[in-house]
Every structure is written in structure tokens, then in C-alpha cells.
């Protein structure tokens, strides 16, 4: 039987959740209490926020209403 993966947080001994406990930004495996970026103090949190901000800014610029002068 394969060994269960434990939460990557150093003080936590809980079993990591499959799929939802895997962090795409730091590569850690986390339990249900630490699976969110903020909960395990992810090193990639700032990168994630910056990426989301840039995507939102691009989307807003695409959807911006154009003002037509001279009509």
C-alpha cells in the first residue's frame, strides 16, 4: 500500500488532499486546512495576484467603450 502524502506545512501532520490540495504555484501538497494560497503562505501568492491583475486589466481594455468624435 502506498504511503500517504502528508501536508507540506512543517507543523501539520494531516494527510494532503488529492488534486485540490496540490498547489500549482509552489508545488506543495496540502491538507484541507492549508490548501488555499493564503493559508500556507505560498511563495507564489504575489505572482498569482500580479498575473490575475494583468489579465483583468487586459480584459477591461478589450471591453472599453470607444468614444467616436464628430458624430
TrEMBL record:
Coiled-coil region(s): none
Keywords: Metal-binding, Zinc, Zinc-finger
PROSITE patterns, alphabetized: ZF_AN1
The AN1-type domain, residue ranges: 1-50
SMART domains registered for this protein in UniProt: ZnF_AN1
Pfam families in the cross-refs: zf-AN1 (PF01428)
Any one GO MF annotation of this record: zinc ion binding
Protein name: AN1-type domain-containing protein
Organism: Apiosordaria backusii
Amino acid at each position: 500500500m502506498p504511503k500517504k502524502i502528508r501536508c507540506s506545512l512543517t507543523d501539520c501532520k494531516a494527510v494532503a488532499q488529492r488534486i485540490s490540495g496540490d498547489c500549482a504555484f509552489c508545488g506543495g501538497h496540502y491538507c484541507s486546512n492549508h490548501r488555499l494560497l493564503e493559508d500556507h503562505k505560498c511563495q507564489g501568492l504575489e505572482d498569482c495576484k500580479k498575473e490575475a491583475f494583468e489579465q483583468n486589466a487586459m480584459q477591461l481594455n478589450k471591453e472599453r467603450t470607444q468614444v467616436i468624435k464628430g458624430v
